[in-house]
Amino acid sequence: PRYRLRVMPGRATGPGRGVPRIWLAPIVALTSLLAAAVSGLLSRSVVLDLISWWPVWSLMAVAAYLARGRKLGRVRLDGVVPLLVTVAVALLTVGHLEGWAAMPSGSYRLVGPPTGPIEDAELSARVDGKLRLSAGSSEFLYVAEPVRLGGEVALPEAVERTTETRATVILGPPPEPGFYGFAGWEISLAGPPEWTLSLEGDLDVDLSDVRVVAAEVTGTGRILIGAVAEEATLSLNGDLTLEVEPGTAVRVVGVAEVPQSWERLPDGWKSPAEGVGWVVELSEASSLIVTGG
Question: How many CB atoms lie within 10 A of CB 87?
């Protein structure tokens, strides 16, 4: 009988001669990250974050050179370095999405003036993209950050007019986002002032902990409201979903799809809860679905 002697290679190789297959993991991770930026899934600013980590990549390159052919016990050190590179790419992606301070894109935020004695505030925020708004810290009147996904929306520019107890803020996008193009804005408002709002965009708005006197909202998306101490007016224009927290008094003026427990009125609908609450006014072209209440 004939026998064939098979020689097993010392390490698995990839498409190129002498390239360990384990290096495919960081190559795929890095390629996927860049592809996400090019396709618009992630902001182009992730490229700047990637470049800013050059000390990490330099350290990895030196480690890869020194680890060639070396072992630590049974562990091949030249196989550990690609795993570390893959972990570093994953951490960079997480840091970019979370806005870590170590990233150039992480410092990209707009902070309003200290809340101080301001009692009444007006905010106008209109954007061709996502607009997320909710209550935030009471230290600053507002904080605006990008929605850290791909898009063509830059961080807003602010026009502010303030007196001792009153403030007016108009947020608008600059004409060219450059590398810092994102999916939209995420705005947090201080709790103490009473707010008059004018909002437009692809909306995800939580007003349950914001002291709203009146709000004019245009666009599509979701709005959450909760109980109020004084009557508040909400004017809606667009295809919207209104989520109502339990025990919140709401009167809808116009045509809307509401829960079965709501009471029909001559000009609209009323939630089961009694007392002071929201008056929701709909434009003729609006489509509203109400849940909860």
Answer: 13
